[in-house]
Amino acid sequence: MLLTVLGCSGSVPGPESPASGYLLRAEGTSVVLDLGNGTLGALQRHLDPFTLGGLALSHLHPDHCADVSALTVYRRYHLDPPPHGLLPLYGPSDAAERLAAAYAPNAVERRMTDLSDVYEFRSYHEPARIGPFELRAAAVEHPCEAYALRVSHAGRVLVFSGDTGPCQQLVELATGADVLLAEASWPDRPGNPPGVHLSGKDAGQAAAAAGAGRLLITHVPPWTDPEQVLAEAKAAFDGPTELVLAGAHYEV
């Protein structure tokens, strides 16, 4: 699998990167994990959004899904669209309702559009296949319904933490993964709110406990020192560890 980082800024877009979005490609099929603020523009540098095989959302905070509205406009109003069907969209149980409300915020407009002409909404209740990819999810610790995602292809495994506090569910889903793409939103400190985000230390400990082959750190907000987060992660995990960069490619 080829992982391309569309955006990796945590909580908000940053001066050098859109918010969260990750493109995976293999055997001519593409899947996007999260589509936060600014990521649709980045996606168009790599492929035509009509050719996407699927979209999987870890949760419905804007920095992970805001550009679903932009993608809706692209696929609904393009003047010369290629032949295409509905785009499979995997997400939390209320994704269809929440994303329609984000696209059409008043009740009158929402009665005219439910996004069912653009997306086929699917849940995470069962493992899924998107072309050559197998997708599994596990509920994780966050203030809203949120999931970590495990994508497998040809014996290789990428696990994306989504947004989560430290939890055993993430470790279990990431067990044996070749790559753990983990958020690390703040440094390790006593006042961090529980059940919201990982610190660099938390991300490193999760990778070590899961026996992951490689740790990629993402979702560092503009106000957090990325080098401090990276140093914490490296101190807790002795495997290859690095900060991802927007626009960078990683082989899985």
Features:
alpha/beta; Metallo-beta-lactamase, Chain A; single chain; 252 residues; seven-stranded mixed beta sheet
Could you please describe the fold and organization of this structure?
This protein is of the alpha/beta class and 252 residues long. It has one domain (2-251): Ribonuclease Z/Hydroxyacylglutathione hydrolase-like (Metallo-beta-lactamase, Chain A), CATH 3.60.15.10. Helix content is 25%, strand content 27%. The protein contains 8 helices and 14 strands. The protein has helices at residues 39-43, 62-65, 68-77, 95-103, 107-112, 168-174, 200-210, 226-236, and strands spanning 2-7, 21-26, 29-35, 54-56, 87-90, 119-122, 128-130, 133-139, 147-153, 156-160, 179-183, 215-218, 241-243, 249-251. Strands 6-5-4-3-2-1-14 form a 7-stranded mixed sheet. It has a 7-stranded mixed sheet with strand order 7-8-9-10-11-12-13.
Structural class comes to alpha/beta
CATH topology: Metallo-beta-lactamase, Chain A
Uncertain runs are none
Shape: globular
Question: Overall pLDDT, averaged?
Answer: 96
* Spatial order of the strands forming the largest sheet: 6-5-4-3-2-1-14
The CATH architecture classification is 4-Layer Sandwich
